[in-house]
Amino acid sequence: MKEKKKLKLKKFYFHPITIFLLLTILTVILSAVLSVFQMQATYSEVNQTTYELDNVLVTVENMFNFDGMKYIISNAARNFLSFAPLGTLLITLIGISVAKSTGFIDVLCQRKLNKIDKKIITFIIILLAIFSSLINDIGYVLLIPLAALIFQKNNRNPILGIIAAFCGVSFGYGVSIFVGSLEVNLIPYTTLAARLIDETAHISLTSNLFIIIVFSIILALVGTVVIEKIIAPRLGKYKEKEDTSKTEELAVISVEEEEQLKIQTEKQEKRGLRFALITGIVLIIAFIYMIIPNLPSSGLLLDMSEDTYLGQLFGSNSYFQDGFTYMISLIFCAVGIAYGIGAKTIKNDKDIIYGCKDTFMSVGEVLILLFVVSQFISVFKETNIGTIITCWCANAIGNINFTGIPLVIFSIIMIAIASLFVTTPAAKWSIFAPVMVPAFMQSNISPQFAQFVFRAGHSITAGITPLLAGFAIYIGYLNLYNKTKEKPITIHQSIKYVLPYFGIIAATWILLTVGWYLLGLPIGPNVYPTI
Partners of 445 in the beta sheet? Predict the structure, then answer.
């Protein structure tokens, strides 16, 4: 008998751009359905004058009607241009492309980074990614493309570098070696909520300083182990296509000529690195001088209208925060040009400009993705679905009769769930704080520790939601380095990559937070988990 041939259906893979378009359409339809069922929630906000709670009703906004469609169409350009990762990514890429085109990044990796153990490089990238939360979301736009380049130049899978940088920023968000923009954004809500119980409550900017320093180091160590021992073996090696076009040209060069050429090249590269080092040191000193107050012509990047130095540095109108991306890009440009002059890899301005075009040509797909994602996030936010879910989670904490460790763990879980739908920490904390802080204080837990528990819950799930703005950079760069264009890396696959990291880091966050509470260790200067 003849064997029947089995028909194999070829799997079809949607590109992430298509998936986000479909998610936007689904969100519009879902908003219409939920508005019919009158999905709503009530949350409490603290009145800044009377220190009493005012109830706020939130309902689902129907985006499938006349007003909804008008919003989608009329705000498309505004949503894209105001999308935070767009401008910062483009500015960052200018600096990286100059440094790359002059050969600085290649030589730095070959001469310096190749000598460092790969695990140490991974640890440094994750640690820097964790520290990057000092300056909002700079880690996504700076470290993801940079980590991909560093891993690639060190003969490692650049996708692994992308995952390491993204996980470091997302799952370690809010801990660092110093206080930053997150404190400035959260503390006003913490203070108002604490004054519902104690009218004299004061929350200092350094109230979480000790605990965030310790957590940043531990999370970086655990993250390095996860990347190197679990994720790296699953990804495998990344092989570049061999370039055989110069075989004949190299074959006719004599041994003496080749040796002389090598010596001359090494001499020029060392000279270029010296130029780059001197330029980098000068610019970094100048950058630091710009954030030092009360010196001649200093404080250029400080908001002098603020009373405290941290407010001047990280306040809502901080020039330091607004100008940080530009300054970093400027340093990369200057260092790259200095190297090019020293190593004689550039002769004029056209060499620099034309050398940058390859970087920007390759990110065209990422820019289209950013446009589509900006529309999806904006539409979802406008529906209020995420805000309502956040209200439900916050109200659950207020209605549960837990105290001590059960209250801490339950709060982390509720915040983690809410973080899947509302990714902005301040917006989320404004809803959680009036419920969570009084509940913690009545359980003899300090409001400062409640604020740290919020950090834990927010960070645990930050890296597994496509509603995170930085997720667009992550999935965009995954596909930029994806060699199989017929099989693009989907949202599902990109989340699957980080699931081991998510699981282990989530357990680490919870265990360390509970352990710190049980031991009663100080979380900041003269601040403890309990009142």
Answer: 530
* Residue 56: φ, ψ to 5°: -125, 125
Query: Is-above-0.70 flag for pTM?
Result: yes
- Identify which of 54-58, 110-114, 176-180, 233-237 has the greatest average pLDDT: 54-58
d(CA 256, CA 258): 5
Confidence of residue 25 (pLDDT cuts 50, 70, 90): very high
Cα–Cα distance measured from residue 363 to residue 414, given in angstroms and rounded to the nearest whole number: 37
Statement: residue 9 has pLDDT above 70 = no
Q: Per residue, what are the HEC states of 284-349?
A: HHHHHHCCCCCCCCCCCCCCCCCCCHHHHHHCCCCHHHHHHHHHHHHHHHHHHHHHHHHHCCCCCH
> What does the alpha-carbon distance between residue 181 and residue 179 come to, in Å, rounded to a whole number?
7
Q: What is the pLDDT of residues 371-382, one digit of tens each?
A: 999 999 999 999
**Radius of gyration in angstroms for the set of CA atoms belonging to the chain, rounded to a whole number:** 26
Q: 435-485: per-residue pLDDT in tens?
A: 999 999 999 999 999 999 999 999 999 999 999 999 999 999 999 998 887
d(C-alpha 129, C-alpha 172), whole Å: 8
What 8-state DSSP symbol labels residue 486? T
pLDDT in tens, 350-370: 888 888 887 888 888 899 999
Task: Give which of 87, 156, 200 is closest to 447, Cα–Cα.
Answer: 200
Backbone conformation region of residue 155, classed left if phi is above 0, alpha if psi is from -120 to 50, else beta? left
CA distances from 58 to 26, 39, 55, 383, 390 (A): 21, 9, 10, 10, 11
DSSP secondary structure letters along 427-439: HHHHHHHHHHHHH
Q: Is 212 helix (H, G, I), strand (E, B) or coil?
A: helix
Between 516 and 245, name the one with better pLDDT.
Answer: 516
Structure tokens at 39: 């999905």
Considering all CA atoms of the chain, what is the largest pairwise distance in Å, rounded to the nearest integer? 95
Half-sphere exposure of 351 (CA within 13 A, CB side): 14
DSSP-based three-state secondary structure for 18: helix
